[in-house]
Amino acid sequence: MATLRGRPAHAPGPTYFSYTPDGKHLVTAGLNGAVRIFDHGSDDEPAIIDVPTENHLAAVAANGFFVIGSESGDVTKYSLVTKRMEEILVRCTAPVRDLALSPDAQWVAVASDEHDVKIVNTSDMSRVIFLREHLRSVKQVAFDRSGTTLAASCTDGIIYMYSISSEQPQLIKRVDGLIGMVQSDSEQSIRAIWHPDGTALALPTSNREMQVLSRSDWSKHKIFSGGHKAQVSAAAWSPNGALLVTADLNKGLVLWDSKTQKVLKTFDDVRDPILDIHFHPKDNVLSYTNNNGELFIRQDFVPDAHIRLLRASLQQAPLNGTALTEVSGNARKAGTTAGKQYGNGRTAEEDYLDDLLGPDAMAPDMMSETGDNFIEDDDGAGYAEEPNRSGKRHAEPLDGPESKRRAAYNTWRPQVHDAFQPGSTPWKGNRRYLCLNLTGFVWTVNQDTHHTVTVEFYDRQAHRDFHFTDPFRYDKACLNEKGSLFSCPPARDHPSVIYYRPHETWTTRVDWRTELPPGEEVTSLSLSDTCVVATTSAGYVRVYSLFGLPLKVYRQKSTPAVTCASWRDYIITIGNGAVGGDGTTRLLYTIDNVKRDETYQSEDIVALTEGTELRSVFFSDNGDPCIYDSDGVLLILQHWRTPSQAKWIPLLDTRTLDRLAGGKKEESYWPVAVANDRFHCIILKGGEQYPYFPRPLLSDFEFRIPIAAPVPDETNDDDKELAHQRGLEEKYVRSSIMYSLMRDLVENTNTTRSSQERERLRGYDGMVQVGSMEREVDKALLQLLAAECRAGDEHGMKALEIVSLLKDRTGKMLEAAGKVAQRFDRDVLNEKINELAERRLKGLSDDDEF
Questions:
Q1: Bridge partners of residue 522, in order along the sequence
Q2: 673 near 680, Cβ under 8 Å?
Q3: End-to-end alpha-carbon separation of the chain, Å?
Q4: CA distances in angstroms from 182 to 153, 158, 202, 290, listed in the order given
Q5: Which residue ranges does the record annotate as region Disordered (predicted)?
Q6: Whole-number pLDDT of residue 5
Q7: Which residues contact 341 (CB under 8 A, 6 or more apart)?
Q8: Can you tell me whether residue 830 is helix, strand or coil?
Q9: In 701-795, which ranges are continuous DSSP H helix?
Q10: Element (H or E) spanning 256, and its range?
Q11: How confident is the model over 466-495, as a mean pLDDT?
Q12: Residue 714 has what pLDDT?
């Protein structure tokens, strides 16, 4: 197993970070006077912002800005767009220990060594809310999902729950006996982490466990125990709440199943105690920082065996049952519980002494019968409202600042497919591929101040390789026999740019560039023999001629756009549609002919199974749309030129390849093209997901339609016969599909006499090709007929059915079928075949009874 390597982010010492909610950026802060901004999915060097403060102990980020807190007491806001400081939101007289950003990014809670918690408006720093009900300093703070409740974890071992639905906060609960007493600079975590569904939160207890509390009545429910030998230092829920990850001061890292509270995996490759940890908002990535200034970004953190949990929709919090949201009028009213102890009477002070002196030194003489060490503390000071006569509490004010139309804490969000460029790979080191296909490949190198782009061809007699300096930092590219196409994201000194470079022309070669409107960015790019297609962040599909003339621009129906592909005048665009049963948006595709201004398929569904992702989309060499999914299945679109008749046909399931049988090899496949009736790809060994340098070799596989399970053992005669039979059946289905695709192409292609002559000179004639493929279908049927005749008379009806499927209408194939029946002495079958031949000769239908 490869050694896990961290990315040095700051000088050795405590380091903290935050993802932006959209997952595009990761912001780190540490001991030195700099903040680093990493781009998700890129191995490029991070952007560095020099800041006037040092010894940073907290960082939170929104999509447009981030906030850091330092030991000097300054809480400063910076822009992610300009990479510059915007303002100092607040200054504390003591070190800042933690920050929490509200879900709407309008408020930031500041915990410091002062006794007060300050909640500052991020747009107007003059608006400050003070929380003053605690007697010691607060170490960590956390907003719930709705932003109306704040959990303040105090160094005295008490969690203070505040309602902040208005600018007059109310203390609604004190929870004692769970978290331990800690020093403000301790690496031990006492942070409350709210479950994504908003109905519960989890707390790291002094017993090295994670205790789940219900939001409705603050009672204890499920507990995550047995995973750690030291105090918890960091914890985080997965975005859907199905998984929990925890780390401890003894360099432990544990992944839990939230529903069962069982350990799914323990990681033993952590070198230093983890201080901050987060799942990526969308991808299977876990990041964490430690006390040595390092950032670790673990790709594919959740193992494949449990990936379904991460990809599921929003899960319920692990509660014992449905928590009551109303208090019965007959229920005992909660009175003042200050000093009242439940269970064994453990308090935070006793846990703190246990840590100092050992548990035996403070062992009680007698344990309580209940064995419950949980203390609930309503201070009875009027902060929490009493139930009314109906047993219900008053509703929270609806007109408080920033609370109008606030989303409920259990608001659900669908999982949206991210945009991608087919044939491109992410950064690895300072290199990445921008395009890989059968024409050649395009790769780029990051030179810090600029990029260098290299274009290489497989056929170097037809085209010469070239290389150029790239000041625009192109991140997408396409390549074909006519030219190369590039696009770049917007930057401070230029908008998003599309650049086309033809290989050669009969006149002087003329490159062209076009700039998109400000704020608009290319999300995917495609190049055909006749046009350039780009989908953009504004939801537009932009079509250009190969000479830069804008042909069309229209708003894509299914947004956000995911990707696109093109062949001749045909383009396919794919975007996010309605939400499916698994909580993920369904991908929808549209196929247009831009020259004829015709739509063949409009907003039809891309056939992906639950839990799979689209990895690539492209046209075959005959112009049929193809997709490749994360399960390793290649599918082609049949009858797509007829509205509402399109079907996704599986051509190959790479998981069933003979080379993978019995676990012989561990490999996956990077799709490149479908050409010459074969799947062209790059073999990826082990756990690799993307091809890398040096340039990998191309491999190709024959199509194999998954019609039945493979025969596991072919040692005896029966298994050999079964395997032969299934092989013939697969050959028939495959040849029928290829025949159908070719027939659709020829029937729907309006070729002129001159173009037909050019095709003949190239050795291609559409009708001849269709006739040849029809004979292949009939040949497969005759082989199946022979197998059925060999099996015996009881297979006569199936044999006759096979004969009726023969496509030849000249009678030659029926004559051949009769000879097959005669060879095996199937006289009755031969008579039926002759009757069928007579009916066809008379023009009667095959559907009549024989």
A1: 536
A2: yes
A3: 66
A4: 10, 11, 18, 19
A5: 371-404
A6: 67
A7: 177, 347, 375
A8: helix
A9: 717-747, 753-761, 766-791
A10: strand 253-257
A11: 94
A12: 61
**DSSP string for 347-409:** -HHHHHHHHHH-GGGG--SS--SS----EEE---SSSSPPP-TTS-PPPPPSSSTT-TTPPPT
Q: Extract the tokens encoding 390.
A: 């109906």
Per DSSP, the three-state class of 195 is coil
Q: Cβ(74)–Cβ(112) under 8 Å? A: no
Say which amino acid occupies 572. Answer: I
What is the C-alpha to C-alpha distance for residues 76 and 67, in angstroms, rounded to an integer? 6
Cα-based angle 162, 165, 171 (whole degrees, multiple of 5): 20
The whole-angstrom separation of Cα 412 and Cα 583 is 9
610: part of which helix (H) or strand (E)?
Answer: none
What pLDDT digit, counting tens, does each position of 488-520 carry? 999 888 999 999 999 876 566 689 999 999 989
Q: Where are the alpha helices (DSSP H) in 173-262?
A: none
Phi, psi of 66 (to 5 degrees): -140, 160
Q: CA angle, corner 120, sides to 116 and 123, nearest 5? A: 170
Class of domain 187-303+314-321: mainly beta
Residues 6+ apart with CB under 8 A from 721: none
pLDDT of res. 405? 40
| Spatial separation of the C-alpha atoms in residues 332 and 636, rounded to whole Å | 66
Q: 672, 425 in Cβ contact below 8 A?
A: no
Cβ atoms of residues 440 and 479 within 8 Å: yes
Contact by Cβ (8 Å): 119, 108: yes
Gyration radius of the chain over CA positions: 33
CA distance 235 to 295: 16
| Joined tokens for residue 779 | 């040949």
Q: Which residues of 822-835 are buried (b: 16+ CB within 10 A; e: fewer)?
A: eebebeebbebbee
The pLDDT of residue 326 is: 35
* Domain span(s) for CATH 2.130.10.10 in the chain: 187-303+314-321
Share of the chain above pLDDT 70, in %: 85
Tell me the β-bridge partners of 111. Answer: 98
Say what the pLDDT of residue 330 is: 37
Assign domain 431-702 to a CATH class. Answer: mainly beta
Per-residue model confidence (pLDDT) at position 755: 52
**What 3-state DSSP class applies to 457?**
strand
The predicted structure's pLDDT at residue 846: 60
Say which residue the tokens 């990761």 belong to. Answer: 26
